[in-house]
Amino acid sequence: MFELGSGGGGDSDGGATTAPGPVLATVLRNLDAAAASGDAAAAHLRARLAVLVAGGDGTVAWVLGTLADLAAAGAPGAASPPPVTILPLGTGNDLAL
């Protein structure tokens, strides 16, 4: 499990604590590389990997946008992104509902 937080919600001025791009890119790249080299555990984990986004509209958009950006940039492993599940915890949740 990885925590990717925006550091705040709603109208708060919280700064980013961990940006999802570098974390997701590294996880996908490493799992795909290990699976390609014959690591059965990595292949098993990559096939079952999912992303849980717990937050509001901004957090959901941030993570989905990051996955789209990684795929558009041709990042290793991003061509087949993991499924994303949303746990609405934000202040508005227009998108998350």
Question: How do you describe this structure in short?
Answer:
The chain has 97 residues and is mainly alpha-helical. The protein has helices at residues 20-36, 40-48, 57-72; strands at residues 51-55, 84-88.
Description:
There is one protein chain. The chain has 97 residues and is mainly α. Helix content is 43%, strand content 10%. The protein has three helices and two strands. The protein has helices at residues 20-36, 40-48, 57-72; strands at 51-55, 84-88. A two-stranded parallel sheet has the order 1-2. The longest helix is centred in the N-terminal third of the chain and has 17 residues, at 20-36. The radius of gyration is 14 Å and the shape is elongated. The two termini are 23 Å apart.
Provide the descriptors you would attach to this structure in a database record.
elongated, 97 residues, two-stranded parallel sheet, mainly alpha
Which percent range describes the beta-strand content?
Answer: 5-15%
- Tally of helical runs: 3
Radius of gyration equals 14 Å
Rounded mean pLDDT score: 81
The strand order across the widest sheet is 1-2
SSE blueprint and pairings:
Elements lengths: L19 H17 L3 H9 L2 E5 L1 H16 L11 E5 L9
Parallel strand pairs: 1-2
Helix pairs in contact: 1-2, 1-3
